[in-house]
TrEMBL record:
Residues 7-247 form the Carbohydrate kinase FGGY N-terminal domain. InterPro entries: ATPase_NBD (IPR043129), Carb_kinase_FGGY (IPR000577), Carb_kinase_FGGY_CS (IPR018483), FGGY_C (IPR018485), FGGY_Carb_Kinase (IPR050406), FGGY_N (IPR018484). It comes from Micromonospora aurantiaca. Keywords: Kinase, Transferase. CDD domains: ASKHA_NBD_FGGY_GntK. Signal peptide: none annotated. It holds the Pfam family FGGY_N. Gene3D superfamilies: 3.30.420.40. Residues 257-444 form the Carbohydrate kinase FGGY C-terminal domain. Belongs to the FGGY kinase family. It comes from the Bacteria. This is Gluconokinase.
Length: 513
């Protein structure tokens, strides 16, 4: 019997691209990443150079291929979701890659969301009507850049562009398409009403294909650049959110994947698409019989970074460990201090670009430790609201698996378990979306029977159980946390209206990821 086959998972992220080679036993054989900048030419804009990203993808594949020195059975792709690029008829970009973090279409999103058909649009496409999504961005282009909008021959995402250059095929997978706001998730077809709102035709979008669709090979130029044979198959792959579930082994119904990096997310795998009646969650595809329901939050680790810069600048950069030690000295519930951590507005479950951060309940007795701990608790309480929305969509939640930079902190791990009121399991070191992409590729190429093997390949390193008293405190505070958002919406709206007449707000401490 020969050696296990090797598939390279290529993860096209917001701040870097990474290629990771795995064999069919789940063993990692090689890895390489290349970063690139996120540009903010105007307040609220978040753009990238698609050519730089394409070069990074070629570079990481080449580095891994050179390191491997064994045959590669195929490439399989993961990508950050919600990106939008306008191409001319020759495939040359007419716009930068506009990322999920770009909020220029806030006014368009709010108008679409408030319309009588707004909730129906969300429930039909699975994508919240929010400035992160391509649909409101397309409306923005139609209104603000009409001449450019007319010149665009094709609107694509970043992975679509990379695949066009690698394999000369203009396709997009059901997973990425389910995060555009343009595809009917129940019919797996472009949505007529969404296209009308966007002012585009079906012919201006890539061909829809399953995430397991296999492109037969590379162009001669791509083969030379990557060092791979021209007949190396490419599995189109999926969005990084659904693939992160797969990479964590959270593939069976009832198993939630939670991540807190700079931002955060909570997703559960389901067998049929659907959105809750209030539209609190998204629904994105992985395969025809696997979908993820959940929500993303803008404010995860960025909140701790802000606390470092704003509350303890004398500690210097990267003083998170000292800040966490300080937060641990404050009591559970931060002495009645609540922080709404909406430093970069917010996504789930309210899906609005209006909110701002707030501390409520501040007294003379609160010190820096309380302020920092309340920030951590606010992030975890926001995730608890997302979990409640996941349940409201009719999904059973039996298990939570978590990953991300926050997992290095014992305090933060415990606060999350306490805020969610259930045990949280932490897998051993993994590559998340890259591993998920490789597994999906293995299934598509017939190298493994099913992506279900992920549940057995991922080893749980630690389980953190909630402290009953702390969990009770957070459960009591959660309704107050939730009510504060509704109570402050008029204030958020007033601040938005007043913004042009006020001195400009300071830029964020770092671009969101």
């Amino acid at each position: 019997m020969g050696d296990p086959a090797v598939v390279v998972g290529v993860d096209i992220g917001t701040t870097s691209s990474k290629a990771v080679a795995f064999d069919t036993t789940g063993r990692q054989l090689a890895s390489h990443s290349i970063g690139y900048p996120l540009e903010e030419p105007n307040p609220g804009w978040a753009e990238q150079d698609p050519d730089l990203i394409h070069e990074a993808v070629l570079g990481v594949i080449r580095s891994v291929v050179d390191e491997l020195r064994v045959p590669v059975a195929g490439l399989s792709f993961s990508t950050a979701m919600h990106s939008l690029i306008g191409l001319d008829a020759d495939g040359t970009p007419l716009t930068p890659s506009i990322t999920w973090a770009d909020s220029r279409a806030s006014a368009q999103a709010e108008r679409l969301r408030a319309a009588p058909s707004g909730l129906a649009l969300h429930r039909r496409t699975g994508t919240p009507v929010h400035p992160m999504a391509p649909l409101p961005k397309l409306v923005w282009f139609a209104e603000q850049e009409p001449k450019l909008h007319e010149r665009v021959a094709h609107w694509v995402g970043i992975k679509d562009l990379v695949l066009r250059r690698l394999a000369d095929a203009l396709v997009t997978d059901h997973s990425v398409a389910s995060a555009t706001g343009l595809m009917d998730i129940h019919r797996l077809a472009w949505d007529t009403e969404a296209l009308r709102l966007a002012g585009i035709t079906e012919e201006q979008l890539p061909q829809l294909v399953p995430t397991t669709h296999v492109l037969p090979g590379l162009t001669p130029e791509a083969a030379r650049a990557t060092g791979l044979p021209a007949d190396t198959p490419l599995v189109v792959g999926a969005g990084d959110g659904p693939l992160a579930n797969l990479g964590l082994g959270a593939v069976r119904p009832g198993v939630v994947a939670c991540s807190i990096g700079t931002s955060g997310a909570m997703r559960v795998m389901v067998e049929r698409p659907g959105v809750d009646p209030l539209g609190g969650v998204f629904c994105y595809a992985l395969t025809e019989d696997r979908w993820v329901v959940g929500g993303a939050i803008n404010n995860g680790g960025i909140v701790l970074q802000w606390a470092n810069d704003a509350l303890a600048p004398e500690l210097g950069e990267h003083a998170e460990e000292e800040l966490l030690d300080l937060a641990a000295t404050a009591p559970v519930g931060s002495g009645g201090l609540i922080m709404l951590p909406y430093l970069l507005s917010e996504r789930a479950p309210h899906w609005s670009a209006l909110p701002r951060g707030a501390y409520v309940g501040l007294t003379h007795g609160h010190g820096r430790a309380h302020l920092v701990r309340a920030a951590l608790e606010g992030v975890c309480q926001q995730l608890a609201l997302v979990l409640a929305s996941v349940r409201a969509a009719g999904n059973e939640v039996r298990e939570v698996r978590a990953s991300g930079g926050f997992a290095r902190s014992a305090l933060w791990r415990q606060i999350l378990a306490d805020a969610l009121g259930m045990p949280v399991r932490f897998p051993a070191g993994h590559e998340g979306s890259g591993f998920g992409a490789a597994l999906l590729g293995m299934q598509a190429l017939g190298l493994i029977e099913s992506i279900e093997v992920a549940a057995d390949l991922v080893r749980i390193e630690e389980t953190v159980r909630p402290d009953p008293a702390s969990a009770a405190t957070y459960a009591a505070l959660l309704p107050l946390f939730s009510e504060l958002y509704d109570a402050l919406v008029p204030t958020f709206a007033s601040l938005r209206r007043m913004a042009p007449s006020l001195p400009p707000e300071p830029p964020p401490t770092a671009p969101p990821r």
